[in-house]
Write a structure and sequence with these properties.
The chain is α/β, with parallel strands linked by helices. It is built from 8 helices and 10 strands.
Length: 295
Amino acid sequence: MAIPLLVEPFLEPEAERQDTPRWLDRLTAAPLASAATVVALGLVLWEDISRKGPWPGLPGPLDLSRLPLSMNAAWLFAGFALALAAGVALGRTRRPQPPPANHDLPRLPVFLRFDGRRVVVVGAGAVAASKIPALLAAGAEVTVVAPDVSSIIDRSRVRVVARAFRDEDLDGAWFVTAAAPPAVNRAVREAAEARGVFVNAVDDPVNATAFLGGTIARGGVTVAFSTAGQAPALAGLLREAFDELVPADIATWAERAHDLSRHQRAAGVPMASRRPQLLDALNRLYDARTGIERP
């Protein structure tokens, strides 16, 4: 069994970004460091233009001591303005800017199969307990972290850490479900992003990067509905409505589709012809069930 999810693209944590060295970030964050960098860059540019530029006789910063005081001040002002403009331009292009915090990125629907991988559930109340069976069914090794663990948590099937959440609880985890108060969920998301792990924060879309949906799973076919955490009740209603449309013998349909797909690949059937052939095969299954005869 796999768990259906909608996941949002990761914004790489600042600590992990490699576009500039960390020592350079710390240096430019020091007081007056940016201003000194701007002035230094401008002076170097000014001196280079004065020596190799198209304006003969233009004094450089090293030549100002030989000019009258009034001209010296004018050239200093012009040089500082040039340095400021160059520094601002360079500062804006130094590193790419991340999207704004309220960006509306599309979600990617995926189905996860854990196969023995570690999954952490933060929280141990009724809501957290309701999420554990699906994780176990998908093959997860579940660790529950919470200071108070409800008796409805089956300790024989999960590992329990009875204390408050710590960032290191996510070391080696592949996925996290956070079913705790918003402040704890926020800490979970920050720790998860630093480790490149997706978080399903239950009823807390602000702190979630993955969203579970209402599902119909029958006969090897799974259909999932999600509202990206905004209206889970609507996802449930859609699931109930579509559940009436999925035929009871969908497993037979899936088996027939699988057999036909293998035959088509072996026979080299063009992709454009495969779906019409599948539709015809499924129509014949439906007709056989309902007693309809086709020519």
